[in-house]
Write a structure and sequence with these properties.
Number of helices: 3
Strand content: under 5%
Helix content: over 70%
Distance between the termini: 53 Å
Number of strands: 0
Shape: elongated
Number of domains: 1
């Protein structure tokens, strides 16, 4: 489980760092040319989004797969625990019902 967490964390950090770089580079270039902070931020956001969609599909897919695997594993464990509790709880209810039947 620790290895899986490390791979998810590594994928998240790598993807986030690349997304940040794809945003910061156009931000610096546009700001250097225009000296307008708001315009630079808006244009860098649009350019960064477009470039990340074009340049980072593998990283995004890898991170999505690892997150999906982790949530599926958690879901299975939770479902099994709920089923076990339901079976255990049903056995207790049947015993008490048999011990004191209703008139």
């Amino acid at each position: 489980m620790a290895g899986q967490r490390n791979s998810i964390a590594l994928a998240f950090v790598a993807y986030s760092a690349l997304r940040l770089a794809v945003f910061v580079v156009p931000l610096v270039v546009i700001y250097a040319l225009s000296r307008n902070a708001i315009l630079s931020a808006v244009l860098a956001t649009v350019i960064g989004f477009a470039l990340s969609m074009i340049l980072l599909p593998r990283q995004r897919a890898r991170m999505a797969e690892q997150i999906e695997e982790r949530t599926a594993t958690r879901r299975r464990v939770t479902d099994e625990a709920v089923e076990d509790e339901a079976v255990d709880g049903a056995g207790d209810q049947n015993d008490s019902a048999a011990a004191s039947p209703r008139p």
